[in-house]
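Appendix B. Extra example for self-study. Work through it before the problem class; the solution is given directly after the inputs so you can check yourself.
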Amino acid sequence: MELKANNISFSYNKKRQILKDFSLSLNSNQIIGLMGDSGSGKSTLCKIMAGYLTHYSGEVTLDGKKIPDKDYYPVQLIFQHPEKTMNPKWKMDKVLNESWTPTQDLKDTFGLKDSWLTRWPNELSGGELQRFSILRALNPKTKFIIADEISTMLDAVTQVQIWEALINHCKANNIGILAVSHDKELLDVICDDILYFDEINNL
Amino acid sequence: MGELLEVNNLSISFTQYVQGLNRHDLKVISDLTIDVGESEIVAILGSSGSGKSLLAHSILGILPYNSHVTGDIKYKGQILDQELKEKLRGKEICLIPQSVNFLDPLMKVSEQAIGECKDEKEHAEKKIRQREIFAKYGLDESVDDLYPFELSGGMARKVLLSTALVGDPTLLIADEPTPGLDAKSVEETITDIRNLKEQGKGVLLITHEIDVALKTADRIAIFYSGYVIEINKVENFKNADNVLHPYTKALINSLPKNGFNLTEGVQPLDEVPGCPYYENCPIRIDKCANTKPQLEEHDGVMIRCFNFKEANDGT
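Solution. Structure tokens for the complete assembly:
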């Protein structure tokens, strides 16, 4: 499958345009890195590709077709701060199973411990929460993952663990990854190709 | 080189209410020992959300009321109690806070840097000093009258740094000064911190970014599951063979530039009877399961492990 962003332009207000005629494409078997400075609009692009923002011009297509917004959205976004993406009044069990029920096998691969499931989000560390937010995004209907600085807040050991698990799962299930980060050394290791945000944004 | 700050066996826990009146103690920092000298940068490296910032807050005496602290903190050999903390903070000991959100949105930045003053005279003196420091960091006079929302991220960070420096402190505590900044701003922050060291100040740098620690610090303390497990000189962190603790080795080997090697295991959530790294440790011995190793000195390196000698001789 091919996920494509065609000539996307976007601005939050009239004063400053964030994206202009921005295009990129990635295939299901690819991991593409996207690098850029802070404030350049990386996260905005991520939100557009994952269907969070809709008032942009241009189009996001999957195999040439527009993605319907009624059904499960096949492009899933994983954020930098997992604690901000979870309902603080849900226990982790409910958070994890909101979209689908992951197999025990998969929980083990991501190092998820059963004892964590009965806790509240504020009782777990960022690294532990990030494992939950990745796993809940891996619903079998997911075709692409947009990873927006998902390991920036984690220690180096945890960073390797979650990337290994995510990449292995995506390779095996033919899920494409757009990895957004400002860490060039990390992208060099995990990506097939790296794109530079400023070079493809026509501002 | 004199000792500025000594922290001995500091533990911090919180009392939380869970469901109704059930109380529950949450231990965040256990038995933390560290020291900072003049003209020295010591980094504390641990994953985010692990409670490192609380160390900074306890040195300044700004922990919330439901916290419980044991152990002692000394400043220039004197026990730092709440009264002394309140006297010294903002003057001899200053904090560079974690985020731009620490600025008051309704106050001009120059007034924030000057802070509280007794009278007009003190204000005038501090105003001169504030101007000098702003100028040093390339903030011209037009910046003085701006409000925080009018600043870019990099300028706001310089204002935070200036705010800490107006009191001419001897000891600075920098709490996660870099996350969310792009490469250029990170370089600038690193240079700023190194400059403070040149001026003879002591800096305690709290961070989760190993690169920042490697580029600035003289010594690095590794924080794992609430414990400091190793304090070593920065030179030794270039190669996993030169650090002693198995977790530190794993940390260095997991860096993208050092091979991105996978190490299994997660930090324990609850208090364990033995070594906090027991569950994941490749060199554990029977003793580690139920006895806690102490932080001990070995050739100028502080290490918390029973078996590091044998393990390191073998390689």
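Self-check: Chain B touches chain A at residues 45-50, 153, 179-185, 208, 210, 247, 250-252, 254-257, 260-267, 269 (CB under 8 Å). If your reasoning did not lead you there, revisit section 3.
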